[in-house]
Amino acid sequence: MSNRNALRTAFTAGLGNAFASLSGLADSQYVALSVLAVSSGTYGGALSLGRQRLLGTVLGSVLLLIGYEGLRLLPMPLGIAITLGALRLLGGLLKLQVGYKVGGMIIVMGWLVHEGGLASWIPIRFFWTSFGVLITLLGLRLFWPARGVDSNLTQVADLLVQLQSCFRDLAARVDPAITGQVAGKVANPVGIGRYRALRNQLVAIRRQRPALLQELGSLPERHPATLLMANFDATASRLITLVGGLVREAPTLQDPQLVVQLHRAEAELLQAMAGHLGQWEQQIRGRRGLPKPPETELQLPRSWHELGQALNNPTANSASLERLERIASRLMLCSQAEQAIRSAEANWAAILVRA
Question: Above 60 in pLDDT, residue 117?
């Protein structure tokens, strides 16, 4: 994906340079600079950066004209400093994130390099900047289209892969017989490190939300893609909470003959949820448009259905109170995760019906 982004950026910048050279207009280097500054990997991100760059260009140009004419009697360093300070203040009020940097370059270069031709330099600079933003957006639409929806869903699919792996390893930890592993000998045990990695993946997905909203047009909060991503976000958060809870409530393996049925039910449910999340991943990766939920619901294992009988087993009640509390906490977390998957699929189907 990074190679595609690099090739698309280089190709777009090359086209812009070629057109600028053929036009014969001055300062054509600003086309490539705009393409490199705006190319962010997704259409929504580029649109947001493009708006920031154009607004910063306009703001910097206006302040340059005002400052150059109104502060020319002051020493030049002081005049530039005051103008840059005004730019930073106004940029903060307008909530510019990167646009004020462009405005600052315009102020400094205009004052020091183009002071004799501001009337011609400012319009041509704005034209080339606008052209660079435009061809970047077209490139993101035409050459290996990069939409925020696709990027977000791909990240969700990657997160589902890691959740499947964690669920299977957690299942093997409480009931190694399911996977044929030796108790406590999971190849990559689930600990705080893997839990934090899952949280970081979810945070990375959330950071892409503004770019997604930028490309969805008017009322993006009501767009099916936004609602679907919010549904995946909430479900992933609950499933990651399950992983964190099971890590903190680690099972005791010193006396494995006790409460075997309880551990078996927990392990088989984790295995079933991992397999079902695999279906989610396939639906997302094989989508055309927005992905559809799996055709079959989560199938609960028989041991989970018979959990009530296992809880009444005298053998289970002979375990220590501390261990029973720990097992109860783990079973409750598993039950909440199972309910989260069912609720998410119901919401998923409802969102596509309204789409």
Answer: yes
Rounded to the nearest 5 degrees, what angle is found at the Cα of 342, between the Cα atoms of 312 and 271?
60
Q: Which residues contact 285 (CB under 8 A, 6 or more apart)?
A: 154, 157
In b/e form, how buried is each residue of 17-39, taking b as 16+ CB within 10 angstroms? beebeeeeeeebebbbbbbebbb
- Let me know: does 111 contact 64? Beta carbons within 8 Å: yes
Tokens of 253: 């393996």
Q: How far apart are CA 178 and CA 24, in angstroms?
A: 72
Counting Cβ atoms within 10 Å, is residue 264 exposed (0-12), middle (13-18) or buried (19+)?
Answer: buried
Print the SS3 string covering 11-47.
Answer: HHHHHHHHHHHHHCCCCCHHHHHHHHHHCCCCHHHHH
Q: What is the pTM of this model?
A: 0.66
Q: pLDDT-derived band of residue 68, with 50, 70 and 90 as boundaries?
A: confident
Report the greatest alpha carbon distance in the chain. 94
Quick one: which of 136, 135, 111, 131 has its CA closest to 121?
A: 111
> Angle at which helices 29-38 and 2-23 pack, to 10 degrees?
160
Q: What is the pLDDT of residues 135-160, one digit of tens each?
A: 888 877 776 655 678 888 889 999 99
Of 211 and 292, the structure prediction assigns the larger pLDDT to 292
Q: What is the mean pLDDT of the chain?
A: 81
- Find where tokens 């970081």 sit: 200
Is residue 310 within 8 Å of 318, Cβ to Cβ? no
- Degrees, nearest 5: CA angle 53-58-60: 90
